[in-house]
Amino acid sequence: MNKSSSSSSSSSSSSNSKSKFISENVFKFQNHEEFEETPTWAAVVTVLGYAILSALGWLRDFLRHIGFEEKKTAYDPNPKDFVPLYQSYECFYTRNLYTRIRDVFNQPIASVAGAEVHVMERLSDDYNWTFKFSGKKIPSINLGSYNYLGFAENQGPCSEEAIKSIEKYGLTTCSTRHELGTQQYMKELESLMAEYLNVEDCIAFGMGFATNALNIPTLAGKGDLILSDKLNHVSLILGARLSGATIRTFDHNDVKDLELQLHDAIIHGQPRTCRPWKKILIIVEGVYSMEGSLCKLPEIIAIKKKYKAYLYVDEAHSIGAIGPRGRGVVDYWKVDPNDIDIHMGTFTKSFGSAGGYIAGKKTLIDHIRIYSHSACYSSSMSAPVVLQIISALNIIMGRDGTNDGQKRIQQLACNVRYFRRQLFDMGFIVYGNDNSPVVPVMIYMPAKIAAVNREMLKRGCAVVTVGFPATHLTESRVRFCLSAGHTKEMLDHALRAMDEVGHLVSLRYSKQNPHLRWHDLNRADYDKEYLSLN
Amino acid sequence: MLSSVRRFFKFIHWLYLQYLLNTALYMLEPWERVLFTTLLFAIISTAVYSALVFLPVHVRSMIQTYS
Q1: Residue A445 forms contact with B (CB below 8 Å)
Q2: CB distance from A371 to chain B under 8 Å?
Q3: CA-based angle A465:A467:A473, to the nearest 5?
Q4: Which residues cross the membrane (chain B) (predicted)?
């Protein structure tokens, strides 16, 4: 599952020969993606750790069963002749492994989730079964929010627009899109988004997850084939299952495997009847949020054209954050937007708001407007949410007269390169593409998940550490999400904290790079690179 | 002199933390840590004791059979 691969794009020559705008200079096309292999000793120690935890978990379960210890979860009484309700490993995992370190997950916050956030401190007397708020708020650098362009702020032009819109439109239309819910601002948002993405038309929904889960059933049905990447988001999987089509998965970002599956699908047809598939839909994501990898769009488009399949690209994390003009993976790889049949994205990440959109040809969007579950039954988007997106879009596209949008995009690119390069050189295993604002650093061992989170919080950085079931059982990681709102001082503070925590918890696993401390790195190099791009 | 003693204790504390983290004892309650450490100590001490008592005899008999 872990493979080490680096690829350089073949279209870099065409991008270098373009005229030298400042944005092109900043965005030197280095497409390097790497997933270093897990060191064997780390894998062995992780599995041993899980074995010890499982053994002690069984002991605790036995003590609870005989009544020596009180049962603190909802317990299935397992009456005679009834099928037990809970059987899988996940409940055992929740009771015995997840609850022990539950204080590092789902931490409540007490301020706007901008570049800095106040995390509420929670104390527990009985080993994380119950929590009490101590009332203290810990100010920390926010490295966990998907605030890529820094629009999650409570001051500034966007929030003023949102406040004015409440005074003008109120908060809700109290209706669905099909009834009386299509407001003037919805039409403005959709036309603006279509122009931003350089496509014909667009439709917006109130919830990003629901955009995927409720609209894939309108696009695919029984008799269709959906080829989805192994590491796709749950919303895409849910939508695919809801549609009733046959789902086959291909290895993550593996174009050869995709071609093999397509080849087999077209030759063999549907499973029992061998009739040809009615349509084949390939679902990929722009940036995968747990790996930080970008999809290989030009090759997938070449395959799709050869085998005449349809392509659905979910740009939830990449819209606004990737590409020299912030238009997502389409802009990054410089492909024709008309080659991708369905563009999908969310407003939650880079635009500081909530919701999702689907964009493409007008005939497609007209079909979705009529047949989508979400357009028909869910209530339409609220005025401040939409006006926040519209003002953010105006800033990014430069319509408000300043170059604030372009500066934010460049600031994000600088931050990403600065942060990633230093973590990589210090000897941590960092997954993903060099340009993705999502930076996963591997931890592997279950106890270290809790240790990293607590130690980073002590040093004033709020990070998100993820374990099972969001990732593989043995591949837990800490995922940094960088933002254009982070200044160089904040990044330096975070790197210093990560360096200390990396030494304390021994997170430096890399076999390719030497293990260096932060003060061993040549600061002048990184500073020069940072300041020159700014 | 005092700083090197402090550094030594810090190093021991760091080693203890590595033991706790790598065996996942860091997230267990104190009595579970004591239980596991006792078991581990019992196993290791039994192995060391049997090695100390039986290895010289075995090695001597091996040398005798092969010479």
Answers
A1: yes
A2: no
A3: 155
A4: 12-28, 34-57
Q: Mutate which of A47, A56, A500 to test chain B, going by most B C-beta atoms within 10 A? A: A56
Backbone dihedral region of A444: left (phi > 0), alpha (psi from -120 to 50 degrees) or beta? left
For residues A247 and A385, membership in a common domain is answered with yes
CB contact under 8 A, B21 and A451: yes
Domain that holds residue A471: 34-142+403-533
Residues A220 and A296 placed together within one structural domain of the fold: yes
Instruction: Indicate the pTM of the whole model.
Output: 0.86
Distance of CA A499 to the CA centre of its chain: 25
How does pLDDT run across A124-176, given as a tens digit for each residue? Answer: 998 888 999 999 999 999 999 998 999 988 888 899 999 999 999 999 888 88
Those of residues 446-485 in A touching chain B at CB distance below 8 A are 446-448, 450-451
Same-domain check for residues A443 and A325: no
For the domain that residue A422 is a member of, what is the CATH number?
A: 3.90.1150.10
**Is residue A391 assigned to a domain?**
yes
B16 in reach of chain A (CB within 8 A): no
